[in-house]
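Letters spell out the chain; backbone shape is given numerically. Take this protein:
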Amino acid sequence: MKNLFLILLVIGVASCSTEVVNTDRLSQLSSEKDSLINSKNDITAKLAEIELELSSLDTNKKFTLVRTEKPEVKRFDHYFTVHGIAQTDQNITINAQAQGQVDVIKVKEGDKVFKGQTIAVQNTDILKKNLNELETRLNLAQTVFERQEKLWKQKVGSEMQFLQAKNNRDALKNSMQTLQEQIEMANIIAPFAGIVDEVFAKEGELPNPGIGIIRLINLDKMYIEADVSEKMLSKINVGDKVNVRFPSIDYYVESTIKRMGNFINPNNRTFKMVVDVTNNNGNLKPNLLAEIDVIDFTADSAVVVPSNLLLQGSGGKNYVFVATNNNGVVEAVKKAVEIKMSFKQESLIASGIKANDNIISKGARSIKDGETIEISNN
């Protein structure tokens, strides 16, 4: 029993001694770690001071020269492009409305005409002769009617005779009116102001009714009609601003969406979009090809950089180098950048850089992360 007590006593003393040793060792290691960290910070600061002094004293040492620029904070608009065709509602072929030889064409191609102007005249000699004949017959019919009317009022003659006389007179009146309208239709009138684009008929020809005489166009009020994918239906609205380009004539104009179609074409899953355009210089022609940039995204106060400043690393990830002042030493720091979208050589930055960062714009491809650089923006 006495021996057992001694054994337990020895084990207890040994355990206490081990705990004391472990505690002392942990405290010692923590102190050494703190000391090393402080020494590291002191060394880093000292190295920076030495590096700065060396760079100012060592005239032979050359750092990589770079240029920098700051991101812009501005409105960012993203567009999608559709192709359209220039149109005008006032583009018609004026047809002959009556039978008759073309007596005179009063305009030539390229002439400007006003609304209501007579631009061609067809021969109406036969129609006028028919009109004179009808006029003679109408005079006789009017006399017969008046006499039958007097007799009918006197209860002389039959009602049928009176009605026949009245019907004959009215029929001749209607025939004369129709003939007069045909004579008037022989004068071909401009229905709107415009330019004579093409003259189809020649003087002396005998076109049938419905045959084209002259093409008349008004180019002042034009519009662009385009087919837009149904995917964009929720992204655009009537009144939205658009930019219209005509590549063939190198012409550019700003406008708005005037109308959006209410029908989805099942063949190509598109709807019609109409954009009004002005034709102040007269360069726009019907069926001219147009390219329309339509805004489908807008961000205000966005961080925007030129797309050519963005570099790509492994996996296609984008990054930039930012010039950072570290205790007086300018270093190139690599920063990963997330791009929300790009348009027209500009990129909207979602994260990675801020508005006051100095992005290295020239020399970025010849430096590495953490390298000391020299900025020369002159």
Helices lie at 2-57, 125-153, 159-185. The first strand starts at residue 64 and ends at 69. Residues 80-89+217-298 form a domain with the Elongation Factor Tu (Ef-tu); domain 3 fold (CATH 2.40.30.170). The chain is about 30% helix and 40% strand.
